Amino acid sequence: MTDSLSAELIVDHQAGVTRLTLNRPGRRHALSRSLLEELDRAFALISEDRTTRVVVLASSGPVFSSGHDLGEMRGQPEEAYEQLFSTCAQVMKRIRSLPQPVIARVQGFATAAGCQLVAACDLAVASENAQFATPGVKIGLFCTTPMVPLVRNISQKIAMEMLLTGQPINAQKALASGLLNAVVPEDQLDATIQQYTDAITASSPQVIALGKREFYLQRPMEESAAYDRAVTVMTENAKMPDAQEGIAAFLEKRKPVWEEMP
User: Mean pLDDT over residues 229-249, rounded?
Assistant: First the structure.
């Protein structure tokens, strides 16, 4: 990975962790079409990067992301809106299809498509001052695309409250509703995320990729079908060299040596 793709997106890679930092502080990290395209490109590169074990999605300054850049959305032709929302949806789908887990590092406000970005990530850690909102209804633009990952994270009643009123929820309510994994003081954000990245990078990258893929594949399945698939996948998993190495290392009381991603 390169150190940066553009001034709007800073990319840093250290010890198996690639950090993507939104860098439009003057626009509250609004997701312009160009920034979304940079994110899409970055995730595409990461998906092929065997040195990246986990991704942290962050932003500079006091706000995580204010959502779409409304300055770009005034008086545009239909095809421009379709392209913008399609690009945004592509980024969210990239996150889910990425073999590496993605952790959102959230401080301040995450609103509309910014909230969508948090909901699309596999894990999310927020500071105590973080707030989350889908306020599009207030300006006549219902947050329909942010709704997609939101309702797959939190309860129906909380999701409808956010979508219908546009009012923000605080970090503790977001944690209780299932949008977040942890809420910590802002000066502990990086240390808390480090705990997650350390745990993920200690495991087999091939098994992590398999697990993430299967998690999202089985979610919409009926329970019996999910079990049928899980039996097949776990059988194949048990035959993998890393599974055999992990079992041997446990029995021999030593640290396992994992294979690299193919």
Answer: 97
